[in-house]
Amino acid sequence: MNSGTAVSRGEVRGRTSRRGRLNAAATARTPTLADRVLAALGAVRDPELDEPVTSLGFVSSCSVSPAGEVRVLLRLPTYFCAPNFAFLMVADAYDAVSTVPGVVSTAIVLEDHFASDAINGGVAARAGFVASFDGEAVAELDQLRADFLRKAVMAGTDLVCRSLAGAGRAGDDLARMTLRDAPPSAELDRLRRRRAELGLPAGDDAALVIDPVTGDRVSTGQLPLHLRRARTFRVSMEANTGICRGMLRHRYQATGLGEEEAR
Amino acid sequence: MYEKDGEKYFVVDSHMHYWNAAPDNWVPGQERYAKGWIECFHAYQGLGPPETHWPIEKFQRYSEDDLMRDLFEDGHVDVAIFQPTYLKEWYREGFNTTERNALMGEKHPGRFRYNTRWDPREGEDGREQLRRNADRFGSLGCKLYTAEWRQGSRGWKLTDPEAYRFLETCQELGIKNVHVHKGPTIWPLDKDAFDVADVDHAATDFPDLNFIVEHVGLPRIEDFCFMATQEPNVYAGCAVVIGGLMHARPKFFAKVMGELLFWVGEDKLLFGSDYAIWEPKWQVEGFVDWDYPDREEYSDYPAVTTATKKKILGLNAARLYGIEVPAEYRLGPGQGTPAAQDDSQLVTGT
Best interface-test mutation with B: which of A145, A243, A244 has the largest number of B CBs within 10 A? Predict the structure, then answer.
């Protein structure tokens, strides 16, 4: 459970995703600073939904001055979205944007939220969650983030294993397989990245199906219930994403920067 | 009651409201919270069919006539259960209190059941009020909102020692149905406010009470399912599942229903419209017509039968609340027992 350091804000996740997006953009034209800032925001995820804040429609605007001053406006599906997750998104956005070369100053502003002031002020002051919510919190949010990354690992396990089972792989097979044995796919890459963020085995020789807390291989006997649970994690996450998207659409008419419908 | 294809459904709306969220009920200085709350509810309504959407002005304060028509004339509801939410920090007279509900409901004998509420942070005064409410309104259930703000506190857990004292009082008073509604805040704020682990503990420690987790633990359906499957006295309130997904996200709705039927079972699911967020008419009619899409990815979920729908739409809640169901609406031989607790061992320990 002590994976807090492995998932501290904007490390592995930010670097790898940002590079991928940059390469894609570079094939068309030299990316501007605004392009690079938006790509950086594309590496910031909603920790509950495990989707980028851009594709979810949470980025309402992003302005970059000629001098490199960046101001990003964020929005959420409701006025009362949980403040801890909201804080993580604002803080992650700050970290992602402020480390883009060429950015001289960063302002991330969460709008229309009951805790906007505490969150925006706290992030701008690099104060951390406990100091931002004086007396109302006892710990930073690393544990919360890790718990939700584990849910993402379970949901991702369903995504990968369901297609394998559909292709005729029996349970015994799945329990014996390594990550190398699974056919390459975007879902598999994503599952590996989530496991790596948690400090769980993610190399080619690692078991395909692992316990998201201990990292141990799931045995043949445990596999059916494990996969049954994995499906529930995925269904829950997808249903929540659907509701959040619907609420956001009702709340804001304008499309967000980089917003796209889910798969 | 609702009849379709020769089948008769007795409908208990186990979660509905009669609120006043109009500006004249907003607490001075707290307007932004009162406004934010009702606008959030209004956005949920946006997930229903467009022809059922209301303008915000009507949504803030609808009339007794609206409610009676939408539930009983048009909405097929036989008995409705008020679930109060006080929020007195934001709404002067409360958002919808037991008193407000009963004042309206008493004009329509037999149509309503009056659940009350409590808040462990109110201590002995709160417990005394709970006793008075149980006596005055005959409450067989209570609605708990753990994210309610009170004097700087952002919420509480069922496992708080004072909450256990209230649960003991509920037992003494015969308030046997405890509806738990989680929200976005709790103390401390770094914890996941939607976590249902406290319901798990309370359900184990109070086996004679029924715990109905509202909106099936959303957004923690998975945590709720894994917990409910091990606790015979834990039920799922389906408000928000049907209203929020059946129209807006039919594929996800089918999967969520499949998950609930698998882990929790058809005897433990209770229909609730969450009126006035959503009108019951389209929910009842749509649910009676509903089945899984005919695709492989749904094939291993438990089957949905007419008996399944009869239990969910009314018979389960009728059993928990002791509501008399006319003979022609009951289940036939071999169709099971509504609200039965014995299915809950199915998935445990596999």
Answer: A243
Averaged pLDDT, B5-28: 98
In terms of residue numbers, what domain contains A223?
143-237
Name the nearest CA neighbour of A141 among A83, A185, A182.
A83
- Claim to verify: residue A110 and residue A185 sit in the same structural domain: no
Domain that holds residue B21: 12-321
Total domains in chain B come to 1
Q: Determine, yes or no, domain membership for A262.
A: no
What number is the average pLDDT over the span B258-264? 98
Question: Residue B4's beta-bridge partner residues?
Answer: B7
Q: Which residues of B touch A147 (CB under 8 A)?
A: 192
ipTM: 0.95
**Residue B329 within any structural domain of the chain:** no
- pLDDT band, very low/low/confident/very high, at A37 (cuts 50, 70, 90): very high
Tally of residues, chain A: 263
- Nearest CB partner across the interface for A138, out of B154, B183, B188: B188
Residues A118 and A127: their CA atoms lie apart, in Å, by 10
* CATH for A120: 3.30.300.130
In 3D, which of A254, A246, A244, A251 has the Cα closest to residue A51?
Answer: A244
Same domain for A233 and A247: no
Give the separation between CA B63 and CA B104, rounded to whole angstroms.
10
Question: pLDDT band at residue A262, thresholds of 50, 70 and 90?
Answer: low
**B202 and B227 in contact (C-beta within 8 Å)?**
no
B48: closest chain A residue by CA: A246
Res. A14 pLDDT band, cuts 50 70 90: very low
Residues of B in contact with A138 (CB under 8 A): 188, 190
Q: Among all residues of chain B, which has the CA nearest to that of A230?
A: B222
| Residues B208-237 as b or e (16 or more Cβ within 10 Å = b) | ebbbbbbbbbbbbbbbbbbbbbbbbbbbbb
Judge whether A133 is closer than 8 Å to chain B, CB to CB.
Answer: yes
A153: in domain: yes
Tell me, yes or no, if A139 comes closer than 8 A to chain B by beta carbon: yes
Average pLDDT, chain B: 95
- The pLDDT of B175-195, averaged and rounded, is 96
Is 0.80 topped by the overall pTM? yes
Burial tier of B101 (Cβ tally within 10 Å: 0-12, 13-18, 19+): buried
Query: Do A61 and A158 belong to one domain?
Result: no
Partners of residue B222 in chain A, C-beta under 8 Å:
151, 229, 232-233, 235-236
Per the CB < 8 A criterion, the answer to whether B221 and B258 are in contact is no
Inter-chain touch A137–B189, beta carbons under 8 Å: yes
Q: Do A136 and A49 share a domain, yes or no?
A: yes
Which CATH number fits the domain that encloses residue B233? 3.20.20.140
B123-143 residue pLDDT tens: 999 999 999 999 999 999 999
**Residue A197 forms part of a structural domain:** yes
Whether B4 is covered by a domain: the verdict is: no
Domain membership of residue B3 (yes or no) is: no
Position B264 scores a pLDDT of 97
How many separate domains does chain A show? 2
On whether residue B121 sits in a domain, the answer given is yes
Residues in chain B closer than 8 A to A232 (CB atoms) = 221-222, 225-226, 259, 263
State the Cα angle at A40 between A35 and A46, rounded to 5°: 130
- Alpha-carbon distances, residue B96 vs B77, B158, B278 (angstroms): 20, 22, 16
